[in-house]
Amino acid sequence: MKSLRILQVIPFFSPQMGGSAEVAYQISKHLAQRGHAVTVVTTDYARQESRYEAEGVQVVEIPNLIARWGFYINPRLFTWARLNVRDFDIIHMHTVRTFQNAVIQRYAERWKVPYIISAHGTLRIIVRRQM
Fold first, then answer.
1. pLDDT of 47
2. Does the predicted TM-score (pTM) go above 0.70?
3. Closest Cα partner for 101 from 36, 38, 31, 24?
4. Would 64 disulfide with which of 32, 42, 43, 55, CB 3.0-4.6 Å?
5. β-strand 37-43 against 57-62: which pairing, if any?
6. In angstroms, rounded to a whole number, what is the distance separating the alpha carbons of residues 58 and 117?
């Protein structure tokens, strides 16, 4: 099996954030255990209090400028993405409608790096199930 260079993109990567951060951590940890080169790019939001760490997973923290209304903005991500996105075989973006996904998607499309997006419950419910 070929080893892949995988980029995980998430606006926050700390145990205290729960939910999507936990999913990104577990996926990253298990992919690294299978021999893939996994990088998580995130903000430094909530990373001072607690951190995810796993052998074989590189975490790149880009300083967070603003965190309001569940939106985390880190302008230095533009430079990081321009210099690094082309080096990955696939990108996995977590949650939708984030600054991070908008930046990474732009460069992924420019360099034709395939990507997937996992919503993790962040899509609006437009149809409710009826009993």
1. 61
2. yes
3. 24
4. 43
5. parallel
6. 20
* Closest to 100 (Cα-Cα) out of 112, 115, 111, 121: 115
Q: Exposure of 127 by Cβ count < 10 A (0-12 exposed, 13-18 middle, 19+ buried)?
A: exposed
Strands (DSSP E) contained in 1-131 are 5-9, 37-43, 57-62, 66-68, 71-73, 90-94, 115-118
Higher-confidence position of 48 and 2: 2
Q: What digits encode the pLDDT tens for the residues 112-128? A: 999 999 876 655 555 55
Q: How many other CB atoms sit within 10 Å of the CB of residue 9?
A: 27
Using an 8 Å Cβ cutoff, are 21 and 10 in contact?
yes
Min mean pLDDT across 62-66, 68-72, 117-121 is at 68-72
Which residues touch 65 (CB under 8 Å, ≥6 apart)? Answer: 73, 74, 75
